[in-house]
Amino acid sequence: MTTASRIDSVFDLDGLLTAEERDWQMRARAFAQERILPVIDDDFENAHFRHELVGELGAAGFLGMQLHGYGCAGAGAVSYGLVCLELEAADSSWRTFVSVQGSLAMSAIAMYGSEQQKQAWLPRLATGDAIGCFALTEPQGGSDPAAMTTTARRDGDDWVLDGAKRWIGLASLADVAVVWARVADPAFGTGGRAVRGFLVPTTTPGFTATPITGKLSMRASVQCDVALDAVRVPADAMLPGATGLSGPFACLNEARYGIIWGAMGAARCCLEAALDRSTTRAVFGRPIGANQLTQAKLADMLVEVEKGILLALHLGRLKERGALTPEQISVGKLNSVREALEVAHQARTILAGDGITSAYPVMRHAANLESVRTYEGTDEIHQLILGRALTGISAF
């Protein structure tokens, strides 16, 4: 019996899935094992983004797969979550790519764009012929997008954008950026300072994306600083359906939902590595898996992986019914990433010194999960969201 089948024999997830959901999961697992795993250690070491996989992800139907029409697959929320789980079991960078492309850039266009904007961009983004990014976070803003300083002002029939964004995934590779800015015009929001979204082709003069170097996490992915220096776009570049921070926040919740599943993929991979090592490494004349303390660690890791996936499945079923709340998403994001990191740390102890090498995926997952823990809302932000829901008092 393989390591994965031993885990599956304890946790029968298949019995809770439809045939279609299982098919999506198996397709994503095959993609991860055949196209990502053979190269990911080298890509992580060399900080290399493997651009040729983008079109393959599109051909597999994974980009914007939860959206309907415009070449998107129209898959259910659980199917999308399972794809996130399998991609992140290989590496967080590729689940992140699918999230940025599908849950942030494409969702923003699908939810808030005009019909012309949808027709222009969604089919190309779905196939991977074009790449999108989502420019919200600012160098000094971090977890406080309400402090946004990027502005958009009218100049004749055009909009002119000025400002800076940071940690923008895919920006240097993107063909279009969804840029959020404060609009200094009373006609476009209460008080004339409402946050609005703009579709900005990245070839527009004044748009500059610079990859951030020196990363010790998410090394097979690309995150950038973005400078907006008098970036001029036409009036119809504005997303007509989004006014205020509720627009970008709704997109962030789409991405957070994928993280709930994805982090459990990283955790499952770490558990598999630790379980395999526990039966093949012998110390004091017997496999380390024969020791009670090792078995206790394995049991605790399994429990957290099972709980996390069951929570993700529950939230997915709620999402499919249209009943998922932002607070419930915060529960899932907070729990999944926090517990995935703990699983990675426990797995590393079972792997002993070898656990810090690239012979095992655990340190790579642990490093990546530190980024996942930070983006789309830190632990503290989600704790404050839940604290407000429980007490009725905002402590932000």
Automatic annotation (TrEMBL):
Residues 250-390 form the Acyl-CoA dehydrogenase/oxidase C-terminal domain. Residues 133-231 form the Acyl-CoA oxidase/dehydrogenase middle domain. It catalyses: glutaryl-CoA + oxidized [electron-transfer flavoprotein] + 2 H(+) = (2E)-butenoyl-CoA + reduced [electron-transfer flavoprotein] + CO2. It comes from the Bacteria. Its cofactor is FAD. Pathway: Amino-acid metabolism; tryptophan metabolism; Amino-acid metabolism; lysine degradation. Its EC number is 1.3.8.6. Coiled coil: none annotated. Residues 18-129 form the Acyl-CoA dehydrogenase/oxidase N-terminal domain. Keywords: FAD, Flavoprotein, Oxidoreductase, Transit peptide. Gene3D superfamilies: Acyl-CoA dehydrogenase/oxidase, N-terminal domain, Butyryl-CoA Dehydrogenase, subunit A, domain 2, Butyryl-CoA Dehydrogenase, subunit A, domain 3. Belongs to the acyl-CoA dehydrogenase family. This is glutaryl-CoA dehydrogenase (ETF). It comes from Microbacterium panaciterrae.
